[in-house]
């Protein structure tokens, strides 16, 4: 039996309440996106039929192409360097960026230090008190509820029972055609967290994401640990990714995911200036590490555990958001292998916009997403509607699992550390097992019992 500490419960309830306002409101003066240009109509995306868009041979798909200049013109001198911090190539001195930077009242920015990396490349937590966690630094504590006002709180789970929040990071990957074909055939839509550098490199891949009805969100320009960047660098990572996604898809996201989950209240505050809200996760497959820093079998085992949880009571009262990746053939193959069983064991396998009733996940209100009940209405299966009617009370009475671990495609360190175990724990539910970020493990309150 798990004893739930009152503070944890109240934080959880506060977060549930704040989801509603975060999804519904915009912060002041966020009209920067209106000056972005695009020729793409997101309601009528037509992909040029070239080998790269129709083949399912990874080598053919990943052959570079020059996009049709009638769709968009990507002049490298007008963008940050690919896979480098977005202030590169003079982008921190462009007129548009300078105007944006100066439009923000930085005197209101929280006075939180820029983090540093250790010599081994992991976050340096020296001197940071994970117990009091003054900056709501997820990497240290899995904190998702900001400690300061006027900042969008993170989303990290789907509230409906037996719901798998489907998310794929690090795309668009050039070799994703077989994977996207499968999702399309199965009528599955996911939240896709695109890296700005990949969007510019593989624009038709990003167009396909919108064409297929996926929920597109930002995953920064160059995939850094964002808390290690200066305010200017953080702003540039967000801004140029927004601009790239708009140019190529006609849409500007309202949601983003921090690489490695690395976010604190300084980064949240800057994101909030651009109207961006973070979406984290509460289950991590570590799929990026399969065959890289861990075995494929270990990742298969995580998938199997998470699939089991769909039916064994773990998600009887609320659902999950699962961290998985579009990053390469291995992770997409794992997705294809496991999706049939995921769908068997979970009532709902849906994108995060729909599971959170975020009907407008973009600044452009021309594209809307189904709310959860709209999604249920279209799905005439009878068992689905009964879970909807019970949902309101179940949200308030559940403690979402918050097991998490870092994922780092670029890190040499790895350990499969997501763990769910019954324990009474500290307020944050976190127990740090290793000083290294990648070794960070969180033992969560797994009881769904009050
Ligand atoms: C959709 O796009 C195609 C190709 O760009 C165009 O021929 C067609 O007229 C468009 N349809 C609508 C309804 O805008
Ligand atoms: C722009 O960024 C570069 C690093 O990429 C830095 O050296 C320079 O000082 C920055 N310029 C301004 C105006 O902030
Ligand atoms: C459900 O399955 C998971 C994964 O195998 C396991 O860790 C957890 O303890 C199970 N929960 C219950 C209530 O049986
Ligand atoms: C995309 O996937 C291919 C095939 O697995 C892989 O070789 C490539 O490195 C990936 N590209 C990126 C940018 O992650
Ligand atoms: C992975 O690559 C193989 C060939 O190298 C290909 O047949 C298969 O379709 C790819 N899987 C995915 C999910 O793209
Ligand atoms: C979504 O809407 C349904 C129906 O109004 C409601 O029961 C549920 O609590 C909402 N979920 C969220 C996350 O707001
Ligand atoms: C419709 O609901 C059933 C069970 O409630 C579920 O198995 C199925 O996957 C749902 N369909 C879609 C398209 O999500
Ligand atoms: Zn990532």
UniProtKB/TrEMBL annotation:
Classification via PROSITE patterns: NODB
Segment forming the signal sequence: 1-22
UniProt-recorded name of the protein: Carbohydrate esterase family 4 protein
InterPro entries documented for this protein: Glyco_hydro/deAcase_b/a-brl, NODB_dom, Polysacc_deacetylase_ArnD
Recorded superkingdom: Eukaryota
Residue span(s) of domain NodB homology: 162-355
Alphabetical list of SUPFAM superfamilies matching this protein: Glycoside hydrolase/deacetylase
Pfam families reported for this sequence: Polysacc_deac_1
Keywords, ordered alphabetically: Signal
